[in-house]
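DM from R.C. (forwarded with permission)

"hey, sorry to bug you on a friday — could you get me a structure for this? deadline for the figure draft is monday and I only need the backbone to look sensible"
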Amino acid sequence: MVRSGKFSLELIDATTKKPFKEHFGLDGKTYAEVEPEIEYFLRISSNDPRQVCVTLDVDGKNLGYTSALSCGKSVEKGLLSCENGVSEYCALKFNKLVNRNRNVSNKSNEEGEDGLPWTGCIKMKVYEFVFKEGYHSAQKSYVSSWSANTDHVLKGLNVTSKKKALNSERGSKTFQESHKGGRNWGPGEKLLSVKLLYCSTVGLIS
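My reply, with the result:
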């Protein structure tokens, strides 16, 4: 579990609902130890007295929706679709890049803010909760347009590094929640962000 202020982020197995083992690097970053083909959800939590807005990025791509998060709450998130007052969250799945025919970027293989080129990255951004004008209906339909990020840098990596390389794609496991209409709301000023990296076991022990 990665914490920043009074907020936390962790990845949980979509079947067992148990969090993945985490390791703390000398670089100060947190790495979740995961395996290819395992499906997962994102668990976000808050102990802040304020209600806040949260957005989530997976491998550099926003999931496409904003969530409200209240004090003392811990909720699970995934790829969202809404219809007739029901929200359905679909799990994501860890994908071994070396086994896929992916487009290869010509970008540098140097480490960036999201970690080494073979690590996946989850970001939670936390904002002030702000009411907007108007109201929304529970019947409003929505489908997340998120798709797997294929712009990964495999060119120039050695064999061991390529074995570490993972990203996320759409899974199959789902759960549903009912939702209500009400007053419009959205994100205000950004408060902070929380980042969690993930990679395969071979990436952690080599």
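R.C.: lifesaver. DSSP finds two helices and 15 strands in the chain.
me: no worries. The first strand starts at residue 2 and ends at 4.
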